[in-house]
Amino acid sequence: MKSKLKYLLPLLLLLSFGLLFSLNQFNFEKFASEFKEPETIIELSLKRKQIDSLGFGISRFSNLKKLDLSRNNLSDLPLDLSKLDSLETLDLSNNNFEFVPDIVYELKNLKELDLGKNKISFISAKLQELKSLRKLILSDNQFIEFPIEVCELDSLEILEIDRNSISAVPAIIGELKNLRVLDLHSNNLKNVESSIYSLDSLRELNLQSNKITELSSRISGLEKLKFLILNDNPINSLPLSLKYLKNLEMLQISGLKLDSLPDVFGNLKSLAHLDLSSLELYQLPNKIDSCKNLKYLNLRENNLNHIDSIFCNFKELNNLDLSSNGISSIDFNLSCLNNLTSLNLNKNNLSSLPDSIFYLNSLRSLSFNDNLITQIPEGFGKNKKLRIIQMKNNLIDSLLIDSLKQEFKSIRIYN
Prior knowledge:
Blueprint: H1 2-17, E1 21-22, E2 25-26, H2 28-33, E3 43-45, E4 53-54, E5 66-68, E6 89-91, E7 112-114, E8 135-137, E9 158-160, E10 181-183, E11 204-206, E12 227-229, E13 250-252, E14 273-275, E15 296-298, E16 306-307, E17 319-321, E18 329-330, E19 342-344, E20 365-367, E21 388-390, H3 398-407, E22 412-414
Parallel strand pairs: 2-4, 3-5, 5-6, 6-7, 7-8, 8-9, 9-10, 10-11, 11-12, 12-13, 13-14, 14-15, 15-17, 16-18, 17-19, 19-20, 20-21, 21-22
Antiparallel strand pairs: 1-2
C-alpha cells in the first residue's frame, strides 16, 4: 500500500497543476520522470483527463499490465505502446476512435480489450494476432456488419457487441468454442444464427431489443446457459425445449408478443431471476410454483386481477413487482414471504391493504401509488426495517398521512 501511495502523490500534484499537458497532449516523458522506477508500475489509469493525444514515453512503464485511457478524446495511439510486452488489459472506451490503431494488434499478451463507445465500423484482419484475447468489448460503435475477424479469436470467452446496427451474425461464430458470454442486445437481428446454439460453453446470452421473431428448439443445446435475455423482441412463441435449460438462473422475456407460455417452468428449478412483465398474462404460468429459488419476480403490466397463496412457494423472494395489473385483492397472508425486501403494487385496483403487509420482517420498500386505498392497516409501523413507502394518488385522508409522518419518522412517506 505504501509503495502505491509513493507513486500516487506526484501524479495528483502534476494533474492538479496541469504540468502533464500541452494543448491536451499527455506528456509521458514528463510523467515518467516523476517516478524513481516507472518500470515498477503495474496499473495506470488516465481516464477522464480530456486527453486528445498521447506523446511518446509510455514505454518507460515497461511492466505495465493494465492501462485505462477511457473517457478521453483520443483517436490514435503512440507507436511506443507496442513495447508494453506485459500489457494484459487495455481500456480505450469512450473516445473518438474511428478504427483500431494498428499498434493495438502488436500487444500479443493482451487478454482484455475495451473499445466500447467509439466510432468504429470495421476491424482489421490483424485482430487474429491477439491470440491471448479473452474479453473483447465493441459495444456502442457503428458496426453495420458483424466483424467476422472476431471469429478467429480461439481463446475468446466474452464478446460484447451490443448497441450497433448489425442485422446478421455469421455462421462461423460457432467456431468460438470457449465463448461464455455473448451480448448482442440492441442491434437489428431478425433471427438467431443457428450456430449460436452449438456454443456449448455459453453461460450468458443477451438478445434483447432486436427484431427476432422466432427462437429455435435447438436452444436446448445450450445446456450450460445461466442467463437468457430476450426482452423486447417480436417473438410470438417460445419452444418447449427451453425446459432442458436446467442450469438457467435468469430468464427475461418482457415485452414479447406471445400467445401463451410453454409448459417449461416445472423444469427450471434453478431460476432466481424471472421477468414476465408486459406479456398480457391473465394468470401465472403453469408449474411456476416449482421455481422455489426465485429471488426476483417481475409481473408488471399484465392482466392479473388477484394474487393468492401460490406466492408462498417463493420463500427466497426478495423483489416482487406486481404493478400495472388489475389486482383488486390480495387473497393470502403475505407474511409467508419472510425475505421480501421490495414490493411494488402501483397502478392496480386495490381498495385496501391486508394487515399482513406490515408483518413482512425484511421489507424495506413498499409502493402502492395509483390505487383506490382509503385506509392504512393498523399494523403500520410494525415492520422495523421499512424505510420507504410510496402512496401517491390514493383516497387516504391527508391528515392521516401527516400524522403517520410525525409518528414514524424513520420511514420516508411519499404522497
